[in-house]
Amino acid sequence: MLEPEDRPTRRGPNPPSAGPDPCGELLVRTAAGDTRAFEELFRSQGSVLLAVILRIVRSRALAEEVLQDVFAEVWEDCTRFESSRGSGRAWLVTISRRRAIDRVRSVSAQRVRDTAHGERQLHETAPDVQHEALENIESARAARAVKGLPEEQARAIALAYYRGMTHVEIADHLGVPLGTVKTRIRDGMRRLRSSLGVTDAR
C-alpha cells in the first residue's frame, strides 16, 4: 500500500488551448491586402453582424447602410485587429455595435434639428399666413358690400378697383361723363365705408 507521500499527485485538466479562429485568419489575410479573404469575411459574417446592428437601429434599410460602413472600416483598419485580445468575430461585433449606436445618435440628432427648423419656419411664416388670411376675409367682406351697392356705383367701383381702370377709361367704357363716374365712385365708397364700419379720417 502506498504511503500518502508516495501517492501520485492528481493533476487537473489541461487548460483548453485556443481553437482555430477562421474569422481572425480572414482578418489577417485581409490586412495583407487579400481581397478574396475580405469577400469571404463578408459572406461568412455579414448576416451575423446585420442581426447585431438591426437589434440596435430597428430599421432594415438603416442596418444595411451601417453594415456597409462596418466593412468599409474593416477594410481600412483591419490591421488594428489583435488576435491576442479576442476573436475576429468579437472584434467585428464591437465595431458593428459602435457604428450602430453612432448612427442612432446621428439620426436622433438630425430629427431634433429638423423639428427645430420646422418650428422656426412655422413661427416665421405664421404672421404672413395670418396677415394673408385677414386680407382674404376683408376682401370677401368688401366684395359682399360692393354687391349691396346700387348697380351703377358697384359697376364703377369694380372697374376702378378690380380691373384697375382710370376714371377717364371708365367714363369711355360706360359712355357717361367723367364727372358722373367720379360721383358714382365717391358715393359708392361712402356707402362701402359705412357698411364695413370704416370711419373717415378727419
From TrEMBL:
Keywords: DNA-binding, Sigma factor, Transcription, Transcription regulation
GO molecular function, one term: sigma factor activity
Gene3D superfamilies assigned: 1.10.1740.10, Winged helix-like DNA-binding domain superfamily/Winged helix DNA-binding domain
Ranges for region Disordered: 1-23
InterPro entries xrefs: RNA_pol_sigma-70-like (IPR039425), RNA_pol_sigma-70_dom (IPR014284), RNA_pol_sigma70_ECF_CS (IPR000838), RNA_pol_sigma70_r2 (IPR007627), RNA_pol_sigma70_r4 (IPR007630), RNA_pol_sigma_r2 (IPR013325), RNA_pol_sigma_r3/r4-like (IPR013324), WH-like_DNA-bd_sf (IPR036388)
PANTHER family reported for this sequence: ECF RNA POLYMERASE SIGMA FACTOR SIGK, RNA POLYMERASE ECF-TYPE SIGMA FACTO
CDD domains in alphabetical order: Sigma70_r4
Family label: Belongs to the sigma-70 factor family. ECF subfamily.
NCBIfam families the UniProt entry points to: sigma70-ECF (TIGR02937)
Residues that span the membrane, as ranges: none
GO biological process, one term: DNA-templated transcription initiation
Keyword hit for Transmembrane: no
Protein name: RNA polymerase sigma factor
Xref: PROSITE patterns: SIGMA70_ECF
Organism expressing this protein natively: Nesterenkonia xinjiangensis
Residue ranges constituting the RNA polymerase sigma-70 region domain according to the UniProt record: 41-106, 146-193
